[in-house]
Specification:
The structure holds two protein chains of two kinds. Chain A is of the alpha/beta class. Chain A contains twelve helices and 14 strands. In chain B, helix 2 packs parallel to helix 3 and helix 8 crosses helix 11. The chains are: A alpha/beta, B alpha+beta. Chain A: It catalyses: N(6)-[(R)-lipoyl]-L-lysyl-[protein] + pyruvate + H(+) = N(6)-[(R)-S(8)-acetyldihydrolipoyl]-L-lysyl-[protein] + CO2.
Chain lengths: 327, 447
């Protein structure tokens, strides 16, 4: 194992895949000369040249479409969005062009492409630049949606995403970029898409989270242990396909589940998990399924309100106390 | 801590009652023993006394509410130094439907991060049963565990929000060895449910559509009417009735009655110490007959014959809106004058609906006398746990044949209804013969 930031892990994943497969290339705003708006593509231009590390104009709809076309033609593009908020310009290309092509061509043509970039709230960037798109993309057949938490998730799953023959939405988080985690030190570390990870074993309650939601969840689990409540933490890693089996196995053990995410509550990934759990593990539930989410409001700009609009560790603990009847 | 006042069980069989009247209002001071409310039970109106002192903080169930379950929160009493804000915490245990919904922690809207549908989890008091009756809240897991372990959820109390039974409660019951589903206990509520539903007949809609819309008015049933319907339906459906009739000559009894009444001591105002009625003497005669034929002084249970040691004679008293059956206990031991005075007191209080449950519950037999209304003969419905009931007709002059010649006598026809499970025909006949013996030789009642 070696310590790595999420930022480095993402860069290493792309570099390894570009070395491995000449069809892989990166395009996006500031990915080449500037070394990435968030320095994710640092060093790639030097190693792989401007032919495979391409700066684009500020035109998401245009370069996303270019990427999809390249994928259809046989290349394996990695399209970086400076943030996924800007990908709303390109969502027609992502959904109508990338996600549906394999189906509409009767399997004759697909789009092996990765759309990646930071997603969700950063800090003080206001309502338009603080949105979590996990449930938007997870809604669409033909897409795979990954939301990594740790550096190991980021590296292993980005490599898998690049190799996957389908369009993959890879939702990173600006705040997590600088976090350091242990990453397996091996030549070719690839994680399977669609497999959740039990980050922490427990018996009293199942906590399910993913991406930055995991930061609140892990802290809450630690504090809950001090209160004598043993929480099992599942890091979902992939949103679509959803590894519901891992969640169900845990719920059958604990009888209670709380989901944690930064996105809005309505029609959220939490909603889907709650639905599937009540359908498939109804007789094992000892309490209502609770979710801790971002508040149902556009993200405020004011720092104090922004803080209130996001979930926090206290809310996770309150929810756990409610479902374990220890409040 | 505010003190919760709950619906009291005024008799062992009481499941719900009507909160007829509040005698206090919010803000009133009460001391232990003060009458705070009147509650209408199956048949009587009872007073509820405060058991603690304090200030009435909140009346949760308003006066005139029907069908309030036993143990449901009806009011909150504040102790010294507490003000109404203290109710917020205890008031949460009130069923939301009944308390008007105020002060009940609201479920956070979706704009909240935590959708804690169970925000009232701090509620330490198991909430009373929900207003819709038998609904027991339990988690799916608790239900499954209870089934696996043969536990009866009805026997458990839930520690979760709104009394929800959760896994923890099942585990505690298993550890304590409580809550096992007794087959009989499980059956009982079903039987009760069946019995309380005499409407197995046509529905209200089916009945009403047979009449023009403006040709009637609807009067809601009171507790007494419901109890009569329930108990008599149960009786006719579960008790195999059998009837025995006999004519009794009354002339000797009427003569003795006149003699005894004339001999009654009078107080200063000239009021006699007693005034015997034919009915009083009928009660006594039936009680003595049961003493003489003890096998007929019984009650049926599935396991045993209950052999009663005394004749407790219920007497059907017609009152506005129904009837009630106060009981003359140990009537075989009581002098006629005592029986007579007890009946006067019962009759008066029955009409005011002030009888206490212990005065009208139980008994080993009953008398229903419609003689004063000129009825010649009728048969009555056995009122369990009784095994018999005697229907008494009017004493009237009839032609009778005596020693082969026609004569005139005052004759009263009586019909004994018996529960054939415990009083067979011959036994019923034996009892009636003994009764007739006392009526026709009334002096034997005095010795």
């Amino acid at each position: 194992m070696k310590s790595s930031t999420v930022r480095e892990a993402l860069r290493d994943a792309m570099a390894e895949e570009m070395r491995r497969d000449p069809d892989v290339f990166v395009m996006g705003e500031e990915v080449a000369e500037y070394q990435g708006a968030y320095k994710i593509t640092q060093g790639l231009l030097d190693e792989f040249s401007a032919k495979r590390v391409i700066d684009t104009p500020i035109t998401e709809h245009g370069f996303a479409g270019l990427g999809v076309g390249a994928a259809m033609a046989g290349l394996k593009p990695i399209v970086e969005f400076m943030t996924f908020n800007f990908a709303m310009q390109a969502i027609d290309q992502i959904i109508n062009s990338a996600a549906k092509t394999l189906y509409m061509s009767g399997g004759q043509m697909g789009a092996p492409i990765v759309f990646r970039g930071p997603n969700g709230a950063a800090a003080r960037v206001g309502a338009q630049h603080s949105q979590d798109y996990a449930s938007w993309y997870a809604h669409v057949p033909g897409l795979k949606v990954i939301q990594p938490y740790s550096a190991a998730d980021a590296k292993g799953l980005l490599k898998a995403a690049i190799r996957d023959p389908n369009p993959v939405i890879f939702l990173e988080n600006e705040i997590l970029y600088g976090h350091s985690f242990e990453v397996p030190d091996m030549d070719d570390f690839v994680l399977p898409i669609g497999k959740a990870k039990v980050e922490r074993g427990g018996t009293d309650v199942t906590l399910v989270s993913w991406g930055i939601g995991m930061t609140y969840t892990m802290k809450a689990a630690e504090e809950l242990a001090g209160m004598g409540i043993s929480a099992e933490v599942i890091n979902l890693r992939t949103i679509r396909p959803l590894d519901i089996d891992t969640v169900l196995a845990s719920v059958r053990k604990t009888g209670r589940i709380v989901t944690i995410e930064e996105a809005f509550p309505m029609c959220s990934v939490s909603s889907e998990i709650a639905y599937q759990v009540q359908e498939k593990a109804f007789d094992y539930l000892d309490a209502p399924i609770l979710r801790v989410t971002g508040k149902d409001v556009p993200m405020p700009y004011a720092a104090n309100l922004e803080k209130l609009a996001l979930p926090n560790v206290g809310e996770v603990i309150d929810a756990v106390k409610a479902v374990t009847y220890t409040a | 801590m505010p003190i919760n006042i709950t619906m009291p069980a005024l008799s062992p069989t009481m499941e719900e009652g009507n909160l007829a009247k509040w005698l206090v209002k919010e803000g009133d001071q009460v001391s232990a023993g003060d009458v705070i409310a009147e509650i209408e039970t199956d048949k009587a109106t009872m007073e509820v006394e405060a058991v603690d002192e304090g200030t009435v903080g909140k009346i949760v169930v308003p006066a005139g509410t029907a069908g309030v379950k036993v143990n449901e929160l009806i009011a909150v009493l504040l102790e010294d130094g507490e003000d109404a804000s203290a109710i917020d915490t205890s008031g949460g245990s009130a069923p939301a439907e009944k308390s008007g919904g105020d002060k009940v922690p609201a479920v956070p809207e979706s704009s909240s991060a935590i959708e804690v549908g169970a925000k009232a989890a701090t509620d330490p008091v198991p909430a009373p049963k929900n207003a819709d009756g038998d609904r027991i809240f339990s988690s799916p897991l608790a239900r499954r565990l209870a089934k696996l372990n043969g536990l009866d959820l009805k026997a458990l109390s839930g520690s979760g929000p709104h009394g929800r039974i959760v896994k923890r409660d099942i585990e505690e019951a298993l550890a304590a060895g409580t809550g096992k589903a007794a087959p009989a206990a499980a059956e009982a509520p079903k039987a009760a449910a069946a019995a309380s539903a005499p409407a197995a007949g046509p529905s209200a809609d089916q009945v009403l559509k047979l009449f023009d819309k403006d040709s009637y008015e609807l009067v809601p049933h009171d507790g007494m009417r419901k109890t009569i319907a329930k108990r008599l339906t149960e009786s006719k459906q579960t008790i195999p009735h059998f009837y025995v009739s006999v004519d009794c000559e009354l002339d000797a009894l009427l003569a003795l009655r006149t003699q005894l009444n004339d001999a009654a001591a009078k107080d200063k105002e000239g009021k006699p110490a007693y005034k015997l009625s034919v009915n009083d003497m009928t009660i006594k005669a039936l009680a003595l007959a049961l003493r003489d034929v003890p096998n007929a002084n019984v009650s049926w249970t599935d396991e045993n014959m209950v052999m009663h040691k005394h004749a407790d004679v219920g007497v059907a008293v017609s009152i506005p809106g129904g009837l009630i059956t106060p009981i003359i206990r140990r009537a075989e031991e009581k002098p006629l004058s005592v029986i007579s005075n007890e009946m006067k007191d019962y009759g008066k209080r029955a009409k005011e609906r002030k009888l206490k449950p212990e005065e009208y519950q139980g008994g080993t037999t009953a008398v229903s006398n419609m003689g004063m209304m000129g009825v010649k003969n009728f048969s009555a419905v056995v009122n369990p746990p009784h095994a018999t009931i005697l229907a008494v007709g009017a004493g009237e002059k009839r032609p009778v044949v005596k020693n082969g010649e026609l004569a005139v006598a005052t004759v009263m026809s009586v019909t004994l209804s018996t529960d054939h499970r415990c009083v067979d025909g011959a036994l019923g006949a034996e009892l009636l013969a003994a009764f007739k013996g006392y009526i026709e030789n009334p002096m034997s009642m005095l010795v």
